[in-house]
Design goal:
By secondary structure, this protein is of the alpha+beta class. The chain has helices spanning 3-15, 27-34, 38-50, 78-84, 102-109, 148-153, 156-162, 182-188, 233-241, and strands at 54-57, 61-64, 69-72, 89-100, 116-126, 129-139, 170-179, 195-204, 210-219, 223-226, 260-262.
């Protein structure tokens, strides 16, 4: 273990004993307490700040940040997630417009490029703190008369079910690491090029009909992704047959080039 890694772990032990918002000792004090150079301390603090354990405030010091929210890759809603954690969920509509689908959205939603599509961007908050930006794309014919106020006062999926008679039962979702652009940084209140997660989701009805396409950007300093893992029975049987996990020709393992996470409802 390097001196920097050892120092990081020692500082992390200290951080975990402090309360959220509490200041940590100065670099000079930590250097003296841990018996390492200030350069090593500064590098360790940089690591912990990048990982979301600490937040630096110019002219004030370094403080313990809010813990990250664990995001399980299951079909749960943002609203339900926050309430379950004892937090107050809310939304602010950033944009609501109708536009022709165009080639890409038309292909994703399985409609004509000229089909009118509602594009709604919302800032998702918990206890008043920004967490994510979500942009919904859905055929205008499915949600006639929907307003910015509707999106702020109601769960979107509840609106679909109760007002429009549309049920969402599942879908597909991809997740990629990214950094925030200028508009995303302004909306989320984070520095430009902050780490983030980008979600893209397609949902469908009980009959398999595509309902919506959603793009979301979640703050990387406030979220971590967690999923349960299990070994498929086919793989276990394959260890005996030496065939289930290979292509049967040259023994190469078949691996998808892009992982799909289980859909989570973000209403």
């Amino acid at each position: 273990m390097t001196k920097q890694s050892e120092t990081r772990d020692l500082v992390l032990d200290l951080v975990e004993r402090l309360e959220v918002g509490e200041a940590i000792p100065s670099e000079r004090q930590l250097s003296a307490d841990l018996g390492v150079s200030r350069l090593t301390v500064r590098a360790a603090l940089d690591d912990l700040a990048r990982e979301g354990y600490l937040v630096r405030r110019r002219g004030a010091g370094t403080f313990v940040s809010e813990p990250k929210i664990t995001q399980e890759l299951t079909m749960t809603s943002f609203t339900d997630d926050m309430r379950r954690r004892g937090m107050r969920p809310s939304s602010r509509t950033l944009e609501l417009r109708v536009s022709p689908a165009g080639a890409r959205l038309g292909r994703l939603l399985r409609v004509s490029p000229s089909e009118p599509v509602v594009i709604a961007s919302r800032l998702r908050l918990a206890d008043g703190e920004s967490m994510a930006i979500e942009t919904i794309h859905i055929r205008e014919a499915r949600v006639p008369g929907i307003s910015a106020r509707d999106l702020e006062e109601h769960s979107f999926y509840e609106l679909l079910e109760e007002r429009y008679g549309i049920e969402i039962v599942g879908g597909e979702q991809t997740i990629e690491p990214t950094v925030t652009d200028e508009d995303e940084s302004d909306a989320l209140g984070v520095p430009l090029h902050s780490p983030a997660f980008r979600f893209e989701r397609l949902t469908h009805s009980p009959t398999g009909e595509t309902i919506e396409f959603v793009e979301s950007v979640y703050r990387g300093d406030r979220y971590k992704l967690v999923t349960a893992l299990s070994r498929p029975r086919e793989r276990q049987r394959g260890r005996r047959s030496k065939a289930a996990a290979t292509d049967g020709r040259d023994g190469r393992l078949l691996v998808s080039t892009k992982a799909l996470g289980a859909t989570r409802r973000q209403d």
